[in-house]
Amino acid sequence: MTTRIKSGLRISDQEMVFDPSTGESFTLNPTGLAILKLMVEGADEDRIFEIMSKDYQITEAEFERYFVDFISVLKSCQLLENDA
């Protein structure tokens, strides 16, 4: 399943996300920024795990738990498409 990021977001390399539709800004850590950029590129969860597991020593179960938490935060900040 591919979770879609809300269109129009501005993502900086300084770990900031700006939503022009609400005027809100959010700060991400480097890992969150990397995952968000992959999601914007259309990567699905399997592809994101494949890429992230090369940089971090993380099991698939650990990744799944962290990814679900990250998606929950994105939802609560209204940074996902409405149908996601």
Descriptive overview:
The protein has 84 residues and is an alpha+beta fold. It has one domain. Helix content is 46%, strand content 12%. It contains three helices and three strands. The protein has a three-stranded antiparallel β-sheet with strand order 1-2-3, with no helix packed on it. A hairpin with a 4-residue loop joins strand 2 and strand 3 (24-27). The longest helix has 17 residues, at 60-76. The mean pLDDT is 90.
How is this structure best summarized?
With 84 residues, the protein is α+β, with helices and mostly antiparallel strands.
Query: Can you write the helix and strand succession as a string?
Result: EEEHHH
Helicity, in percent? 40-55%
Q: Any idea how many domains?
A: 1
Strand line-up in the sheet with most strands: 1-2-3
* Proportion in β-strands: 5-15%
End-to-end gap: 10 Å
Question: How many helical stretches?
Answer: 3
Mean pLDDT: 90
Write the topology of this structure.
Layout: E1 10-11, E2 16-19, E3 24-27, H1 30-40, H2 45-55, H3 60-76
Antiparallel strand pairs: 1-2, 2-3
